[in-house]
Amino acid sequence: MHIDTITSPELAWQQEALCAQTGAEFFFPEPGSSVREAKRICGLCPIRTECLEYALDNDERFGVWGGLSEKERLELRRRSS
């Protein structure tokens, strides 16, 4: 039996993300680990902007989204307020 994953239209962009083609360990590293590799992959990703907007709109608190770490997104939110 084969079950297809259903993706809502609002999240269809995630299928095009480079992170979807690599391991989550780059984007959700252990505390204190480097996010350099995740940021490098994000820098090459064609949907980086959509990813960052999603993270900010949904208050994602963990991982690298749109090329920014948790701390960087928090700082961006503070500057935008």
Automatic annotation (TrEMBL):
The keyword Transmembrane does not apply. This is Transcriptional regulator WhiB. Its cofactor is [4Fe-4S] cluster. It holds the Pfam family Whib. Its main location: cytoplasm. The keyword Iron applies. Binds 1 [4Fe-4S] cluster per subunit. Following nitrosylation of the [4Fe-4S] cluster binds 1 [4Fe-8(NO)] cluster per subunit. It is found in: Cytoplasm. Keywords: 4Fe-4S, Cytoplasm, Disulfide bond, DNA-binding, Iron, Iron-sulfur, Metal-binding, Transcription, Transcription regulation. InterPro entries: 4FE4S_WBL (IPR034768), Whib (IPR003482). The Fe-S cluster can be nitrosylated by nitric oxide (NO). Upon Fe-S cluster removal intramolecular disulfide bonds are formed. The gene is whiB. Belongs to the WhiB family. [4Fe-4S] cluster binds at C19, C42, C45, C51. Coiled coil: none annotated. Acts as a transcriptional regulator. Probably redox-responsive. The apo- but not holo-form probably binds DNA. PANTHER family: TRANSCRIPTIONAL REGULATOR WHIB (PTHR38839:SF4), TRANSCRIPTIONAL REGULATOR WHID-RELATED (PTHR38839). Residues 18-75 form the 4Fe-4S Wbl-type domain. It comes from the Bacteria.
